[in-house]
Amino acid sequence: MMVDLLKELCRVVLPLYPHKSLSTQVLVRQTPALGKHLSGRSRSCTSVNHRKLVRNGEEKKSVIWLEGNIASGKTTCLEYFSKTSEIEVLTEPVSKWRNVQGCNPLGLMYQDPSRWGLTLQTYVQLTMLDRHVLPMSAPIRMMERSIYSAKYIFVENLYKSGKMPEVDFAVLSEWFEWIIKNIAIPVDLIVYLQTSPQTCYERLKQRCREEEKVIPLEYLESIHNLYEDWLIHHKSFEVPAPVLVIPADHDLKKMLYQYEENREKILMAHC
Ligand SMILES: Nc1ncnc2c1ncn2[C@@H]1O[C@H](COP(=O)(O)OP(=O)(O)O)[C@@H](O)[C@H]1O
Ligand SMILES: Cc1cn([C@H]2C[C@H](O)[C@@H](COP(=O)(O)O)O2)c(=O)[nH]c1=O
Fold first, then answer.
1. The pTM is what?
2. Residue bearing the CA closest to ligand 1, atom 5
3. What residue owns the CA closest to ligand 1's atom 14?
4. What domains are defined for the chain?
5. What's the gap in Å between 248 CA and the centre of ligand 1?
6. Residue 233, class by beta-carbon neighbours within 10 Å (0-12 exposed, 13-18 middle, 19+ buried)?
7. Keywords in UniProt for this one (predicted)?
8. ipTM greater than 0.90
9. What average pLDDT does the chain have?
10. Does ligand 1 come within 6 angstroms of the Cβ of 109?
11. From residue 254, how far is each of 96, 132, 225 by CA, in Å?
12. Nearest 10 degrees: Cα torsion 224, 131, 190, 262
């Protein structure tokens, strides 16, 4: 029966690892019965007591999620750390959210969140999951946001603000719960770039992404509050790893200085 279950799980999730063979790369999180044959990763995967598909041979590597409000400086921070040889960086797949087969779900969502919120967030969930399961090519991975913040911050915001219908929220939530129960999403450290919504608003205007021109300050305030409740006050959802808070309202020079100051803590995430 366990073997059947294993086969079924691999049938469902194997397409996520198209470039790797099943025998060496996709494993099911250890259960007593399977323990003799299979190994699971020992460090923080995001939930336990369920069979999870994990990649073999990555136990010594570490994964850092870089979290923060829109235009808080995440991409700029990743660019800085990308120069470190032990670190690979994965940026958010925003270009996909702006263009899936010629359509722009990000733009559509900002124009009409009630109609297109589910469409965008389904695609965000898929593309973030795709990022999470990519094989690692360096000892440390720093990735921009996560499938968790997509759900706990952005889906939550749409729903709480009355812009996502109950049924859309329910469907997304069931998808999300299935994913985190069945697929290992490793994380060792969350780096939170903590900014004021006002700073983000100014940087957002400076960046001038076409779809985001309609974003008011209040939207950034809601996203900020959800982040704070999650990562600082621990008032909303489980936090899956320790959080390193970096104050990020400062100018670029001071930010680079702070990144240097925190380099050791970040590099030590996998020890
Ligand atoms: N410390 C900073 N001070 C001033 N502007 C910044 C700073 N960090 C980033 N920026 C600018 O703010 C905008 C948003 O930064 P970005 O790194 O793209 O944010 P995110 O990836 O979090 O959305 C960009 O135009 C970037 O050049
Ligand atoms: C994860 C996620 C993002 N978005 C939106 C928010 C922004 O407009 C872009 C991401 O840009 P950033 O500068 O990297 O913050 O995508 C969203 O609507 N839903 C999401 O789940």
1. 0.84
2. 203
3. 71
4. 60-270 (3.40.50.300)
5. 10
6. exposed
7. ATP-binding, DNA synthesis, Kinase, Mitochondrion, Nucleotide-binding, Transferase, Transit peptide
8. yes
9. 84
10. no
11. 32, 31, 25
12. -110
